[in-house]
Design a protein that fits this description.
heterotrimer; A mainly alpha (about 325); B mainly alpha (about 280); C alpha+beta (about 100); B: about 280 residues; PaaB_sf (chain C); 1,2-phenylacetyl-CoA epoxidase subunit B (chain C)
C-alpha cells in the first residue's frame, strides 16, 4: 500500500498537467471544483444534444422529400449518439446518466437555450443546421483539446459528425434558394428568427460570464464567449452572402481597422428570460423528455429483470 | 468552417481508421442522392412492366409507411440506445422504400402522379407525397399506430420475419434491380428480426408488466399479419420465437379489411405529405 | 447493486477492431441490461452496424485498473476500480452540498 500524498502536492501536479496542456484523466486527482465544473459543462452539453433532437425531430415526419427525410432522421439519430457519448464522459467521473436525466427534468441542470425556440417551417431544419450547428461547431472544435480527456475524445467524434450536420443544413437552404419565391421567403424568415438566438448560444458577454475565467485557467474552456461569437459572425457573413440572405442586424458591417465585423448585441434580457425558463418551448421540451423517460421505465426495468433471470439460470 | 485538429495518430491507435471510410451507415459519409443512379432499369424480356411496377410499389409502400411510423419513436424511445436502434431500422426501411418506389416509377412511369408542368419533384417523391391514401398499396399492419414499445417490437418481429422470408426468395427474381434490392434488404431485415426477436424474448420473460404489454400488443398486430401473404416459412420462425419466449399465439381471427386501409393511414399521410404538397414546384 | 433496484442499465465499455490486423481499441461506453444486448447496442451506436468489424464489450465494473500515478493517494484500498469517486454511490436528494 503506498502512502497517501498530501493535497497541496497533488494540486501542484494537477496544475502542472493542465499548464503543459496535457489531459486530466478520470482517475487522476483533481480539485473538487474542477470535477464539478466538468460534470456541469459536459452534462449541459449532453442535455443540449438530447433536447436538441426535438425541434428538428418533429419535422422528420413532414420532410418534403425522401432524401431529406433520410438525412434528417440520420442527423437527429446522430444527436442521440452525441448525447450518449457525452453522458459516458460524465460517467467516468461517477455521475450516471439517470442522475443527470433527473437533474435535467427537475430543472437543476440546463441545456442550450436555443432549443427553447420553436422550429416553425421546414426551412428551420436548414437554418438550425447552418447557424445553430455552425455556432455549436465554433464552440466545440476547441473543446477537442479540452483538458478533461474523456470529454475531448467524445468531442473529436462529435465534431466530425457535426460538420456533416452543418453542411446538410447549408445545402438545404441553398437548394431552397434556387426554388420558388415562397421557398426563398421561407428561408429568409427562418434566418431572421434564428440569427439572434444563434448569437446567444455563445453565452453572455465576457463581463457577465462569471465562470469563464476559472474554466479557461483549467483548460476546460479555451476561448471566451465574445471571442467565439466574433469568430462565428465573421464566418457566417460570407456564407449568408453566398446564400443570398441577410441577417436582421442594421449594425452589422465590416470594420477595416479591426479586420472583423461589428455587430449589434442580442437582447440579453430575452436571453436571461429564456435561460430562467420563460422561453417559448421550455416547458414543452422538458415535458417531452420526461414523458419518454417515464414511458420507457417499464422497458428498462423489464430488461434488467430478464438479465437477472438469465444470470440465475446460467449460475 | 474551422479545421478540426485531432491527433494524427498511428492507425493502430484508432479503431476508426478503417471504419470511417466508405461506410454508408455513417451519417456524414452517407450518400443520399438518386437511389438508382447509374443502374440499368430496363425491364427484362418476359416480364410485365406494369405488374413489376405495382409489385415494387406494394413492397415500397410497406417499407415507407412502417419507416414513417418507426421514426415517430425518435426522441421518445425507452433509452438512448433504443432510440438509435429504432432509427437504424427506420432508416433501412426508408432506403428500401426509395429504391422500390424509384424502381416502380422507372418500370411503369404511368403510375407516377401527374404534377404541374415543369415540377422538379423526382418520381420517387411524386409517388410518396402526391398519391392519396387509396392509392397506397401497403398492408394495414404497417399503418397502425405504434402503441407502446412492446407493440412496436411485436410488429417489427412479424413484419421483418415475413419480409425477410420474401426477400430471400426475391434474390432470384428475374429483374436485376429487384434482385439487388432484395440482396441488400436481406442483411438489413435479418438485423431487424434479430433486434425484435431479442426484445420479444426479453419482454416476454422480463416482468409481469412487460409480458402483459407484449401479449396485448401482439394480439393487435397478429390479426393483420395475413395481409403480408401466405408464408409457411415465416410462420415457422414466428412459432419458434413465440415458443422460446413462452408466449402463446394470440387467439385472434384475421381482421377482414375488405382490401381497404384503416382510418389511420390518411392521417399519417396528411402529416407526411403536408410540406411537399404545399410546394408542388419546390426543390428540396 | 443499487442501480439494479432503480432499473438503470449497467455501464459497458466498448472495444472495436476497425479492420483485420489491428487491435481492439476502446471507443466509448454505453448502457445495456446484459452482455448480449450490449453487443447489439455497440453495433448500433459505435459502428452503425458496419459488418466485418469485431466488437468487445465488458462491464465497466469488471475492469481492474492500475493507478495512473504511483503517488495516487487512493491506490488502495479502492484505487483498483474504474470508478472511485464518492458520487458513484447513491446519495439521497435531501443531503445538501453533495
Amino acid at each position: 500500500m503506498s502512502s497517501a500524498v498530501a493535497e497541496p502536492e497533488l494540486a501542484a501536479q494537477f496544475d502542472a498537467t493542465v499548464r503543459r496542456k496535457d489531459r486530466i484523466e478520470p482517475r487522476d486527482w483533481m480539485p473538487d471544483a474542477y470535477r464539478k465544473t466538468v460534470v456541469r459543462q459536459v452534462a449541459q452539453h449532453a442535455h443540449s444534444e438530447i433536447i436538441g433532437m426535438q425541434p428538428e425531430g418533429q419535422w422528420i415526419g413532414r420532410a418534403p422529400s425522401l432524401r431529406r427525410k433520410a438525412i434528417l432522421l440520420a442527423k437527429v439519430q446522430d444527436e442521440a449518439g452525441h448525447g450518449l457519448y457525452l453522458y459516458s464522459a460524465t460517467e467516468t467521473l461517477g455521475v450516471s446518466r439517470d442522475e443527470l436525466t433527473e437533474m435535467l427534468i427537475s430543472g437543476r441542470q440546463k441545456y442550450s437555450s436555443i432549443f427553447n425556440y420553436p422550429a416553425l417551417s421546414y426551412a428551420d431544419v436548414g437554418t438550425i443546421g447552418w447557424l445553430v450547428d455552425g455556432a455549436a461547431i465554433c464552440n466545440q472544435v476547441p473543446l477537442c483539446r479540452t483538458s478533461f480527456g474523456p470529454y475531448g475524445r467524445a468531442m473529436i467524434r462529435i465534431c466530425k459528425e457535426e460538420s456533416f450536420h452543418q453542411r446538410q443544413g447549408f445545402e438545404l437552404l441553398m437548394t431552397m434558394m434556387r426554388g420558388t419565391d415562397e421557398q426563398r421567403a421561407m428561408v429568409q424568415e427562418s434566418v431572421n428568427r434564428f440569427w439572434w438566438p444563434a448569437l446567444m448560444m455563445f453565452g453572455p458577454p465576457d463581463d457577465a460570464s462569471p465562470n469563464t475565467e476559472q474554466s479557461m485557467a483549467w483548460g476546460i474552456k479555451t476561448h471566451t464567449n465574445d471571442e467565439l461569437r466574433q469568430r462565428f459572425v465573421d464566418m457566417s457573413v460570407p456564407q449568408a452572402k453566398a446564400l443570398g440572405v441577410t441577417f436582421p442586424d442594421p449594425d452589422l458591417k465590416w470594420n477595416e481597422e479591426r479586420q472583423a465585423h461589428d455587430f449589434g448585441q442580442p437582447d440579453w434580457d430575452e436571453f436571461w428570460d429564456v435561460v430562467k425558463g420563460n422561453g417559448p418551448c421550455n416547458a414543452q421540451r422538458i415535458a417531452h423528455r420526461k414523458q419518454a423517460c417515464d414511458d420507457g421505465a417499464w422497458v428498462r426495468e423489464a430488461a434488467m429483470a430478464f438479465a437477472e433471470k438469465q444470470k440465475v439460470a446460467t449460475a | 468552417m474551422p479545421e478540426i485538429h485531432t491527433h494524427e495518430a498511428d492507425e493502430h491507435d484508432s479503431a476508426y481508421a478503417g471504419l470511417l471510410v466508405n461506410d454508408a451507415h455513417w451519417a456524414f459519409g452517407t450518400d443520399f442522392e438518386d437511389p438508382l443512379a447509374g443502374v440499368d432499369t430496363t425491364v427484362p424480356e418476359g416480364i410485365d412492366a406494369h405488374e413489376l411496377a405495382t409489385y415494387c410499389l406494394r413492397l415500397g409502400d410497406d417499407a415507407l409507411i412502417l419507416s414513417q411510423r418507426l421514426s415517430e419513436w425518435c426522441s421518445r424511445a425507452p433509452d438512448l440506445e433504443e432510440d438509435i436502434a429504432l432509427a437504424n431500422v427506420a432508416l433501412d426501411l426508408l432506403g428500401q422504400a426509395r429504391l422500390l418506389l424509384a424502381r416502380a416509377a422507372a418500370a411503369d412511369p404511368s403510375l407516377v402522379p401527374a404534377l404541374p408542368e415543369g415540377s422538379p419533384v423526382p418520381p420517387e417523391d411524386a409517388l410518396a407525397f402526391f398519391r392519396d391514401d387509396r392509392e397506397f398499396r401497403n398492408a394495414c399492419l404497417v399503418e397502425l399506430p405504434n402503441g407502446d414499445f412492446a407493440e412496436t417490437v411485436g410488429r417489427i418481429l412479424v413484419f421483418a420475419t415475413y419480409r425477410l422470408s420474401l426477400f430471400q426468395r426475391l434474390t432470384s427474381h428475374p429483374d436485376a434491380v429487384l434482385r439487388a434490392v432484395a440482396a441488400k434488404g436481406v442483411k438489413e431485415l435479418t438485423y431487424h428480426r434479430d433486434f425484435a426477436g431479442r426484445w420479444f424474448l426479453t419482454l416476454a420473460r422480463g416482468s409481469d408488466e412487460s409480458r402483459r404489454r407484449l401479449e396485448a400488443g401482439l394480439a393487435r398486430t397478429w390479426a393483420y399479419r395475413h395481409e403480408l401473404g401466405e408464408d409457411d416459412e415465416a410462420e415457422l420462425v414466428l412459432e419458434q420465437v413465440l415458443a422460446t419466449s413462452g408466449i402463446a399465439a394470440p387467439d385472434v381471427r384475421p381482421i377482414s379489411t375488405g382490401g381497404r386501409h384503416t382510418e389511420h393511414l390518411s392521417r399519417l399521410l396528411a402529416e407526411m405529405q403536408v410540406v411537399a404538397r404545399q410546394h408542388p414546384m419546390g426543390v428540396w | 447493486m443499487s442501480d439494479e433496484v432503480r432499473g438503470e442499465w449497467p455501464l459497458y465499455e466498448v472495444f472495436v477492431r476497425g479492420k483485420r490486423g489491428l487491435n481492439h481499441v476502446h471507443v466509448g461506453s454505453l448502457h445495456a441490461p446484459d452482455d448480449a444486448m450490449a453487443v447489439r447496442h455497440a453495433r448500433d451506436v459505435y459502428t452503425r452496424r458496419n459488418e466485418g468489424v469485431s466488437i468487445w464489450v465488458v462491464r465497466s465494473d469488471a475492469i481492474t485498473a492500475s493507478s495512473p500515478d504511483e503517488k495516487d493517494p487512493l491506490f488502495a484500498p479502492s484505487g483498483d476500480k474504474v470508478y472511485r469517486h464518492p458520487t458513484f454511490y447513491e446519495i439521497p436528494d435531501n443531503v445538501p452540498h453533495m
